[in-house]
Amino acid sequence: EVQLVESGGGLVQPGGSLRLSCVASGFSFSKYWMHWVRQAPGKGPIWVSRISGDGTSTTYADSVEGRFTTSRDNAKNTVYLQISGLRVEDTAVYYCALEVFDFWGQGTLVTVSS
Amino acid sequence: EIVLTQSPATLSLSPGERATLSCRASQNINSYLAWYQQKPGQPPKLLIYDASYRATGIPARFSGSGSGTDFTLTISSLEPEDFAVYYCQQRTNWPAFGQGTKVEMK
User: How far is B58 from chain A, CA to nearest CA, in Å?
Assistant: First the structure.
């Protein structure tokens, strides 16, 4: 059974940093692209980034380019999202999703507030 | 940047009725369109991919159609569990989502 479990969210002050994690199980992790998607309260989902199965290729939405970094550790079946320079508008639930978005985690909430 | 526009914003229907949701892309995306259902507190759930293919385990009352710039999600007969928010997503280089259509009980 495919499972994706995010963690690392919390309350952070503007300008702060966080590293989110997504632990995967139930499939051959290193063979698949992984995505991060975020959803602000009451709003639609917004795609944030993706990373190739071997970790050598990453793509980011324009709105987060330069502040967000996606990486993965295939030995740990984990994908990461490093967020720096956090802004109030980054407040959202952050989801990881499998290559064709057929499996999603339950999300981790990031709240940016002073 | 490809923008997806969904209509209507809200659809008020009764169980057993037919729901027709629209998604329009700002430029040609061939059939690279997916539909999702989302309920409160849950992640989006994939219903339809490549415009018309049902994802694993999705009931036959859900169907998708369209290509190019105009797409439709049809729920042939609404069940109580179908009342939710529905999003379309284009799957070109930048997999952006539409703003959603809420299907609410009348």
Answer: 12
Q: What is the mean pLDDT of residues B29-53?
A: 97
Taking an 8 Å cut-off on Cβ atoms, the answer to whether A44 and B89 are in contact is: no
The answer to whether residue A96 scores a pLDDT higher than 90 is: yes
Averaged pLDDT for residues B26-35: 96
Best CA proximity match to B99, nearest among B3, B1, B19, B31: B3
Phi/psi for A29 (5° steps) reads -50, -45
User: In this structure, what DSSP letter does residue A83 have?
Assistant: E
Whether residues A101 and B43 touch (CB distance < 8 A) is answered with no
Answer for the pair B51, B31: CB distance below 8 angstroms, yes or no. Answer: yes
Answer yes or no: do B43 and A107 touch at CB < 8 A: yes
Helix (H, G, I), strand (E, B) or coil at A29: helix
Residue B99: pLDDT over 90? yes
Using CB atoms, pick whichever of A44, A100, A104 lies closest to residue B100: A44
- Residue B1 pLDDT > 80: yes
- Phi/psi for B82 (5° steps) reads -85, -10
What digits encode the pLDDT tens for the residues B2-20? 999 999 999 999 999 999 9
Q: Is B21 within 8 Å of chain A by CB?
A: no
Dist. CA A92–CA A110, nearest whole Å: 6
Going from the C-alpha of A36 to that of each of A6, A48, A50, A94, B90, the distances in angstroms are 10, 5, 6, 7, 16
Distance from CA of B39 to the nearest CA of A (A): 12
